[in-house]
Fold this protein.
Amino acid sequence: MKITVLDAETIGADVSMEEFSPFGEVTVYASTSPDEVALHAAGAEVLLLNKVRLNAENLRDCDTLRLICVAATGFDNIDLDYCRSRGIAVCNVVGYSTQSVAQLTLAMALSLMTNLPAFDAHVRSGAYTANGIPNCLTPTYHEIAGKTWGIVGFGNIGRQVGLVARALGCRVLVNKRTPVEDWNCVSLEKICRESDILSIHTPLNEATRNLIDREHIAMMKPNAIVINVARGAVTDEQALADALREGRLGGLGVDVYSAEPMHADHPFYSIRERENVCFTPHMAWGAYETRVRLLSEMAENIRSYLEGGKRNRVDL
């Protein structure tokens, strides 16, 4: 069986694709541009990919293709209707990045609440050594215990963030379409008004696109911290940038953007050097252990398919 990996560099050079060798001949491409998809996919029975878009146009000559394995939970880059019409199975991976994304969410919250980069820079610059003062307490920072942490989206990642927030002594508010036991589930408006930290963990769909809009941002406390590790388009990015620039938000942590990589005319580009922002390059999901787990899960998807199973099938 011929297995082709279309964009291995998006999963990282420090993990091995040998996981797939027992199933057949493996061809690995570091990247595949839109114009190269048909060429790289030719003759493959299994395609493994992360960000590459697959559709009727670039798959129409892939007569041997039987299975597509996406190295992610989201699969909006795959034309499922076309795959169904051709009998091509599609699998995703769920629950693999919970700890990694929750860890970055926490790291952003603690860094922004503590003004950590400013204190680090004070020592790195030599100012701490030069000024002869045994400590530095500027800028002012605050304890996270006792603060209200609002969580929008309460799947595996949102729940893990909630557990961590509780452990830190935060009051936790949750916004979820269907309420859950033992958690204080409230409206989006209440979360926006009362949260000191608001983190976003909801998937992107038509119901959540632009969910955190200009109106909701205007409800927030002027010192509130907003963290988005979900999808860029669930927020009004321009409204967030405006609020931060105008002093109507205390801090902003973002790992995901409506256009990736962030381009020079993106609303966040002009505020990227401010001390009260923490912008990362869509890496929250990618701890080493997470990526090893991801590849192992993809291998299990292939094994299940070959044995007639339906593990993680999203085309059914």
